[in-house]
Amino acid sequence: MSSDSDLMEVVSAIEPGSTSVWLECPHCSADAQHQASAYKGPSDSGVFVIAPTVTYGVTCDACGKAFYFRPKALTNTSLLSDVGPSWCKFLPDVNRWAAELAALARADMQGEIEALVWPYRLGGDEYLSVDMKGVEGGDLSITFGVGGVESTEYDFDNLAGNTCFNVPDMTEALSMTVVLMEKLSATVVLHNRQR
Ligand SMILES: [Zn+2]
């Protein structure tokens, strides 16, 4: 038997005034977008309220279980995912980016997805290349430009040809790749171009 006090809590950093948030269900790990407009009361204004006393009850569409969402203010130090030697907490934007890109990639490729991943340097800059291919058809290539920006540029208008995302460092590029590969259940090969 469980009571409300047993409910798991998910703390996630959001921009002030956010109307929606991507959350990972602590029970089944499914990602879903949740709208502040679905809640009555403190968030009647349609935005998620960031306050020590405010939590939101969420029910996961995938597994039907409930959890609490506690919004936390996004600080300037949250320009990078919190990735250490034995822990990993991706920025909410990384999960959102990966979920949206995975949906687009899925629509472009058929069958199991294989991905070749390799880093390179060119003209004094670092890059990480990710070539995805559907075993039964379709492909998609993305490249991370590494080190030229202070915060990640997640935007993509279209995926025709090579799409480049600029990220602060190689750990962020590889972490974003990991999240994307997990969402695609892709087989990943660290590629050696000399082979
Ligand atoms: Zn769930």
Summarize it.
16% of the residues lie in helices and 35% in strands.
What descriptors fit this protein?
195 residues; 3-stranded mixed sheet; globular; 35% strand; alpha/beta; 12 strands; 5-stranded mixed sheet; 2 domains; binds zinc ion
Describe the protein in words.
It contains two helices and twelve strands. It is an alpha/beta fold and 195 residues long. The strands form four sheets. The protein has a five-stranded mixed beta sheet, with helices on one face. Strands 1-5-4 form a three-stranded mixed beta sheet, with no helix packed on it. β6 and β7 form a beta hairpin. It starts with 8 loop residues before the first strand and ends in a 5-residue tail after the last strand. The relative contact order is 0.15. The structure holds zinc ion. The site of zinc ion has 8 residues, from loops.
Weakly predicted, low-confidence segments: none
State mean pLDDT (0 to 100 scale). 88
Q: Order of strands across the widest beta sheet?
A: 11-10-9-8-12
Number of strands: 12
> Helicity, in percent?
10-25%
Main sheet summary: 5 strands, mixed
What count of structural domains? 2
Radius of gyration over all CA atoms, rounded: 19 Å
Per-chain topology:
Blueprint: E1 9-14, E2 20-24, E3 31-35, E4 56-59, E5 66-73, E6 82-83, E7 88-89, H1 92-108, E8 113-122, E9 125-134, E10 139-146, E11 163-167, H2 170-184, E12 187-190
Parallel strand pairs: 1-5, 8-12, 10-11
Antiparallel strand pairs: 2-3, 4-5, 6-7, 8-9, 9-10
Helix pairs in contact: 1-2
The protein binds zinc ion (ZN).
